[in-house]
């Protein structure tokens, strides 16, 4: 039991895998899918290209700013070494002299958005260019009631922008953001090297910082820090620079949406409107949209819809013609029965009465046969759609039918039915019942037209001589008789419904005229074809009729 469950589970998994592969392959080969993907990828490429360009520009600007600050810090440090460092008994930085130096140089070498700080050996602040110059920072307060929403919105935008920027930063850059000014000072004093980077100030803004150790010979007596607070201007410049890329990506997306609307939504809307018109037309034919210029799935849908609707129209027309033909064919025996029934009470001699009763009985049988054939013809489509195809051996089927006729029906008129050639399997994938009906109707028709003592021959063409159509090998079955043949004008119409032209001497009313029509319907439903022709003799005269059936051959 457990093995059965596992086996079934594996079978379901295999089917699901196969369906997934089929769907994946459909997506990969979808023209519309590629168009949609191309538009969206193009917009994404434009945006990503803008991000990388801006990131490179930003790195270049920050690097240039750091180089400028390094040059300024080096100048201040050299001046401090010369004028504000005592060498005895130990090298140390004189705080008052350092403040004097910074005060004199800050007017020239410290720009407005830059701040210079001097620290002693213990990392204590000695001089600040803003305090020396008496710089006062003014920041206007928001109006009452406006601080909440606007500030939160700006804070949210700033957070999103900062997170977005962090994606393009290296690990060292992210680590520098978390350092403080004192961390940089201690690192420069302890390690005796320049410390540079972009860090975040307590206020949240980003600061470009360069810290340079003050080192007369070997001992470090302090540090000079230059900080630039105009990085916000750089960020604003970044935003302005990336704006064209955002606009371009937005335009690409809008064009993509418009293109998809034109390429997908509008044709589908046209097809939907066309389908609605078909539904409201009540069977009346209306012009159909085929979209011949489209070579993608939408075009396939339009053409499939038009073909399906045309097939429905043809089917409605066929049903109407069938109903009209049935009405006409049923009226004939009914009219005959009514006439005989009206005359019967007036008949005075027994011979005439018996003749009228015989006419009524004959017409009743004719009507019963007609209704039976009509019923079989109307059920044929459902039978072909419901039953599964199977391998059918035409050779065996023909030989079984020939034996049946030889033992029963054909002996009444001395007509023999035989299969010519050697017995060999001729396989087709078909419905066995309907294909048997084709053979039965063709042989029955041939016997009707054959003279007494005639012969009906069934021939199966060997595979070596089989016709090739559309890359397929066709099995061919030929039914010959010795009758008068078919008038050339009727070689096509013999397959019409209720075609009842019979030879002289044939019993009237024994055939409904649906046999050959049913044969054609069954053969075409199996992807084959049937045709009629006259079989000539050696002198070129008509020696009988020939019906040829061709069906796609099946492999074992």
UniProtKB/TrEMBL annotation:
Task: Please list every transmembrane segment annotated in the UniProt record, as residue ranges.
Answer: 32-55, 242-266
Do you know which Pfam families this protein is assigned to? Answer: HATPase_c, HisKA, Sensor_TM1, Stimulus_sens_1
Compartment(s) of residence: Membrane
Indicate yes or no for the key word Cell cycle. Answer: no
CDD domains, per database record: HAMP, HisKA
Q: What is its EC number?
A: 2.7.13.3
Q: Which GO terms describe its molecular function?
A: phosphorelay sensor kinase activity
Q: Domain HAMP spans what residues?
A: 262-317
Coiled coil ranges:
none
Whether Heme counts among this entry's keywords is no
The organism sits in which domain of life? Bacteria
InterPro entries (alphabetical)? HAMP_dom, HATPase_C_sf, HATPase_dom, His_kinase_dom, HisK_dim/P_dom, HisK_dim/P_sf, Sensor_TM1, Sig_transdc_His_kin-like_C
Residue ranges annotated for the Histidine kinase domain, each copy included: 325-555
Cellular compartments per GO CC: membrane
Reaction catalyzed = ATP + protein L-histidine = ADP + protein N-phospho-L-histidine
Please give the name of this protein: histidine kinase
Q: Sorted alphabetically, which keywords does the UniProt record give?
A: Kinase, Membrane, Phosphoprotein, Transferase, Transmembrane, Transmembrane helix, Two-component regulatory system
């Amino acid at each position: 039991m457990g093995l059965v469950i596992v086996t079934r589970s594996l079978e379901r998994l295999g089917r699901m895998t196969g369906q997934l592969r089929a769907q994946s392959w459909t997506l990969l080969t979808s023209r519309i899918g590629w168009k949609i993907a191309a538009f969206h990828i193009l917009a994404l490429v434009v945006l990503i290209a803008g991000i990388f360009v801006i990131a490179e520009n930003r790195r270049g600007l920050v690097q240039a700013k750091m180089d400028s600050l390094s040059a300024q810090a080096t100048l201040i440090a050299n001046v401090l070494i010369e004028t504000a460092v005592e060498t005895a008994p130990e090298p140390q930085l004189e705080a008052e002299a350092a403040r004097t130096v910074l005060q004199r140089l800050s007017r020239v070498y410290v720009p407005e958005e830059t701040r210079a700080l001097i620290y002693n050996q213990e990392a204590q602040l000695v001089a600040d260019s803003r305090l020396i110059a008496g710089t006062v920072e003014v920041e206007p307060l928001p109006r009452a009631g406006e601080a909440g929403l606007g500030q939160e919105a700006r804070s949210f935008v700033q957070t999103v922008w900062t997170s977005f920027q962090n994606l393009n930063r290296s690990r060292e850059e992210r680590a520098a953001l978390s350092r403080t000014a004192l961390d940089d000072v201690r690192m420069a004093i302890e390690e005796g090297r320049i410390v540079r980077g972009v860090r975040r100030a307590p206020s949240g803004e980003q600061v470009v910082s360069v810290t340079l150790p003050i080192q007369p010979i070997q001992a470090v007596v302090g540090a000079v820090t230059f900080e630039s607070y105009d990085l916000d201007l750089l960020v604003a410049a970044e935003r302005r620079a990336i704006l064209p890329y955002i606009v371009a990506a937005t335009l690409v997306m809008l064009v993509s949406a418009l293109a998809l609307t034109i390429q997908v939504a509008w044709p589908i809307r046209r097809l939907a409107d066309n389908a609605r018109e078909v539904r409201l037309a009540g069977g009346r034919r209306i012009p159909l949209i085929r979209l011949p210029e489209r070579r993608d799935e939408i075009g396939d849908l339009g053409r499939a819809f038009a073909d399906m609707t045309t097939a429905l129209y043809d089917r409605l027309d066929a049903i109407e013609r069938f109903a009209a033909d049935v009405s006409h064919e049923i009226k004939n025996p009914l009219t005959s029965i009514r006439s005989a029934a009206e005359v019967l009470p007036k008949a005075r001699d027994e011979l005439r009465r018996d003749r009228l009763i015989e006419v009524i009985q004959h017409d009743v049988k004719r009507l019963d046969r007609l209704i039976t054939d009509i019923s079989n013809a109307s059920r044929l489509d459902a039978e072909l759609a419901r039953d599964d195809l199977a391998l059918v051996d035409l050779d065996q089927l023909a030989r079984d039918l020939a034996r049946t006729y030889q033992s029963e029906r054909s002996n009444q008129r001395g007509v023999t039915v035989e299969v010519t050639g050697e017995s060999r399997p001729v396989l087709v994938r078909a419905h066995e019942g309907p294909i048997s009906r084709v053979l039965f109707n063709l042989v029955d028709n041939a016997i009707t037209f054959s003279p007494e003592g005639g012969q009906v021959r069934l021939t199966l063409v060997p595979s070596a001589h089989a016709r090739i159509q559309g890359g397929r090998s066709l099995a061919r079955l030929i039914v010959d008789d010795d009758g008068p043949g078919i008038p050339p004008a009727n070689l096509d119409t013999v397959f019409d419904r209720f075609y009842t032209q019979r030879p002289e001497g044939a019993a009237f009313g024994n055939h409904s005229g649906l046999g050959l029509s049913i044969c054609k319907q069954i053969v075409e439903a199996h992807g084959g074809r049937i045709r009629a022709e006259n079989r000539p003799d050696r002198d070129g005269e008509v020696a009988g009729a020939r019906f040829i059936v061709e069906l796609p051959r099946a492999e074992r």
